[in-house]
Amino acid sequence: MKVLYFAWLRERLGVAEEEITPPEGVATVRDLIAHMAARSPAHAEAFAAGKGVRCAVNLDFATPDDPVRPGDEVAFFPPVTGG
Amino acid sequence: MKVLYFAWLRERLGVAEEEITPPEGVATVRDLIAHMAARSPAHAEAFAAGKGVRCAVNLDFATPDDPVRPGDEVAFFPPVTGG
Amino acid sequence: MPRILVQEAPFDVAAEMARLTASRHDIGALASFTGICRADDGLAAMVLEHYPAMTERALTRIAEQAMERWPLTGCTIIHRVGRLTPGEPIVLVLAASAHRAAALEACAFLMDWLKTRAPFWKREEPREGAPRWVEARAEDDAAAARWQTG
Amino acid sequence: MPRILVQEAPFDVAAEMARLTASRHDIGALASFTGICRADDGLAAMVLEHYPAMTERALTRIAEQAMERWPLTGCTIIHRVGRLTPGEPIVLVLAASAHRAAALEACAFLMDWLKTRAPFWKREEPREGAPRWVEARAEDDAAAARWQTG
Questions:
Q1: pLDDT digits (tens, 9 = 90+) for A2-22
Q2: Exposure string (b/e) for C26-50, b if CB count within 10 Å is 16 or more?
Q3: D110: nearest CA partner in chain A
């Protein structure tokens, strides 16, 4: 599974992209966020509740209940601020 | 008092402008319309109720209750259709 | 001060936009509306008559109302008169502000009030048959009414 | 088909307007919105980051939504990315229709949804001190929410 980071998530984690293989129990965006938060203290801080991290799965915005599968491209980022 | 006509009023009356001296009792736009309607059959038809003629007095839109005075410039026209 | 023009000539939208925003760094939003002559029902041309002595005054009042109601950094109204053929622009309205809601709402307001409160009359010249005066539309009155206060 | 562009270069508003209206006689209304970089609080520059693989797709969805909701003859979204200085245009939205309400409402909708549903992030570079990421604004969520259906 390819995981991308944008804006301050990318800066805080120091990487733009990671290749990960989540354990079997990770079925939704919510599960994946819990898994990501356990990877390192920096991840824990970036994915902490209240930071408002948003997600896209395969180039569509996703909610915590949306499924994730091996092979997906998952992106995490702050609320968007374009326009 | 200078009276101007625009759009179909000007066409139906065959004049763009008339100089008139209304009798003393003509104090409001409503009075003036009644006076104008009595000038000719063409005026009567143009100013008939239901035609929706609108008015401006001294370059401001006016309602039937607004006053008219000697020396005013009064314009009559259909509802506006610009834009 | 709003910029108000009543003219037969076409207008240059890009130049008008540049004029409103040039050398300012406090404008975040520029909204525009261009009204264009359509070729409905075999229309050959549209002739716009107006009340020359009153037109600029009426448009200035409308623009001043917009500047009172929204925090605009500037606004522009240009309305053409005379004979226009399908595809030709008739009217341009611009509103600039720090934020987008003000610019977009002011632009809609300017058009709604212009449609109902500026002394213009349109005569349609069909490709066949006699010219006819355009009738005012109830939708325009309804659109203008939504901005009534009090 | 909406016209969607994501680019570093500036855009030409007049050329984009001409492109939407050229050789058509069924367009009566063309609304535009231009978002411009302001110099608030000593801003030196704004850097726009985006999610390249997703951006065009997200903007196309927003434009398609607008074309489903209003009878548009066409619409255009151009969003710049990279480093922009105060006074520079950031985004252009155009909506063309037979009638003005559709064009103006679609233009407001496109901006409201673009602000909340397109993967762009702004970083401000102040003249002094460290760069800071712009935070999403509750007003933008509220503005977007007014177009929710059902």
A1: 999 999 999 999 999 999 999
A2: ebbbbbbbbbbbbbeeebebbebbb
A3: A83
